[in-house]
Design a protein that fits this description.
Strand content: under 5%
Radius of gyration: 15 Å
Shape: globular
Helix content: 25-40%
């Protein structure tokens, strides 16, 4: 499978992972042949990756109900991430930040937030 990102060195330790995730539709980069391998990830980008991976694996991603509309910054969610964030909130994978009233969708996901989201994803979907 082909990887057409001008900013990803094919010899980099992460290149095969990006190639696989791109070929499976889990990641797509920014468009225009740019991936941004050293960019921090936003909370909505991480939710999209988990959502697409769940779909790839055939997990049930039908829960929803637009619970995300309860967050004060709902309108700041990017169009590409709306469905994924709705799923992630409804599935209990992501929750509010600060006092819980905001999702901070375009804020950077801290290492702690990423770890919590991964743990909740695994608890909900992965059987060991």
């Amino acid at each position: 499978y082909l990887m057409d990102f001008s900013d990803v060195d094919p010899a980099a330790y992460y290149a095969e992972a990006i190639r696989w995730a791109t070929s499976e539709g889990i990641v797509g980069g920014y468009g225009g042949g740019v991936f941004g391998p050293n960019d921090p990830i936003t909370r909505e980008q991480l939710a999209v990756m988990l959502y697409r991976y769940a779909q790839h694996e055939g997990y049930d991603t039908t829960q929803g109900g637009m619970a995300i509309r309860e967050y004060a910054d709902y309108e700041q969610i990017s169009d590409f991430a709306l469905e994924a964030l709705d799923w992630a909130v409804s599935a209990g994978i992501i929750s509010g930040t600060g006092d819980g009233s905001t999702l901070t969708p375009q804020g950077q996901a801290t290492r702690a937030q990423a770890a919590v989201m991964l743990m909740r994803f695994c608890e909900n979907y992965v059987t060991w």
